[in-house]
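ENTRY TYPE: protein
CONTENTS: sequence, structure tokens:
***
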Amino acid sequence: MTGTAITVSGLRKSYGSHRVLDGIDLSIPQGSIFSLLGPNGAGKTTTVQILSTLIKADAGQVTVAGNDLAKQPDAVRAAIGVTGQFSAVDGLLTGEENLRLMADLHLLGRSKGRKTARELLERFDLTGAARKRAATYSGGMRRRLDLAMTLVGDPSVIFLDEPTTGLDPRSRRSMWAIVRELVDGGVTIFLTTQYLEEADQLADRIAMLNGGRIVAEGSAEELKRLVPGGHVSLKFADSASYELALRGVGPISRNDEALTLLVPNNGGTATLRGLIDWLDGNAIKVEELSVHTPDLDDVFLALTESR
């Protein structure tokens, strides 16, 4: 990552008296995956539509791939690709014809367009279905074709607006692998999704959008440490160790029969290291130790509650 792919400052958008975005600030490094999360109606799709030049903001400054969104919209369009919630694939055309149509729209020329189509069909494992109508494709195949069509223009920034909606778990993981491959090649991904596991698995940084504002931003692990509920589970080898630990660690719950204590933990390594050092220093025998942290579901519910 050598620079910033997207910068957003003071972004605002209203529809009548309803303010959808109320001063959004973002900075997204090149070659990274950024995920914007929020409840339905929070403004995720509106943000994507503004950054991809589909609609205009009421206020704010935005640069995408080094281009000023307000002053250089054509340059922004040339640098980006967009895969929306609903597939842009033409079901009456074959997979190859869809890609060649996109190549024509990008003015690649007949020879280069055919070559690009062949390469993308192979890359997305669609060669065997290249001459079949896209209407016959499975959901996963259609989403792969949709993303392949986005890549025809060789974009440096790709907006993926809920790209795996409706896909089965196997197809979703296949899409994750493709996204990681794109980022390894230097592409920047701006991802919106309702699947919190998807953001957890893919995103380098995540922002939570609620009430038109960013209410939290950070890595998945940083966000998980914002909400209470993290703990360390300790199972002891004998009752003597259990009783000694019980007097010293201040558990949040206990199970005398199982010789198990739950100890508060904020998810940080320093806290965990301190606990382990205390146990070792007091020669307390621990049979099992496991760390439990809140997941993104907990973070989402805590930070995007109704206001």
Summary: The two ends are 37 Å apart (CA to CA). The chain has a mean pLDDT of 90. The chain is about 35% helix and 25% strand.
